[in-house]
Specification:
254 residues, 40% helix, six-stranded parallel sheet, alpha/beta, 2 domains, Rossmann fold
Length: 254
Amino acid sequence: MNLLVLAGTEDGRGLASELESRGHQVWVSTLTEYGAEIAESQGLQTRFGALDEEELFSLLKQNLIMALIDATHPYAEKMHELAQKVCEQAGIPYLRWERPRIHTGDSPLIHWADGLEEAGKLASRLGRRIFLSTGSKNLKDWLQVPGFIEQEIFIRVLPSSEVLLHCEALGFKPYQIIAAQGPYTQRFNEALWEQLKIEVVITKESGQVGGTEEKIKACLELEIPIIVLKRPQREGPGRVETINEFLKRVEELK
């Protein structure tokens, strides 16, 4: 079966490899060239770059795609909506891989926020030296949260020239930018945050693959608060959370 996997994450690429090993013809689309290079190193057919509605529809038709698998990041809401809409237009099944959530347990150091502004305001009250571990895409939005820019903010982003130029254009100084490629262990996080004298951490509910558990454990060990941005709630059609169920659903499409 010809499948298109929108793979913006490590687990998305792993899913694509597993499907290909089961005899499917798999195409992988990633947002970044870096993501495409990783997928290519795994022997997958890839393309990279943002897709609009017309481009995605054309990609489906050109490659005779029989089903689309949306394995983009849990917070890529616009892409989820676009992919679902185009699948309806093309008359093909849409399957959404939902990265499994983690169980954080109860601790007064763990705070949950419904949105970026709530998280930013809460962080400003909890500490001055803030470690922002939510990626580079929404940095401009964080800086618009009242009072947030007045804090000492440190960011961890991918070590690509494009990302670093973006951070510098927003006014971040070299000492504020930690450019590194994950995954990060609990001990790595602890050592980094101790050295930077971090007082509060902000992250996303990105699951095990996204390193959320390691961040939470590090904060609990250091006894510093962590704010977790809640994952968008999407209960739409085609949503699957377990790998076995997902593979079963794909096989049922044949």
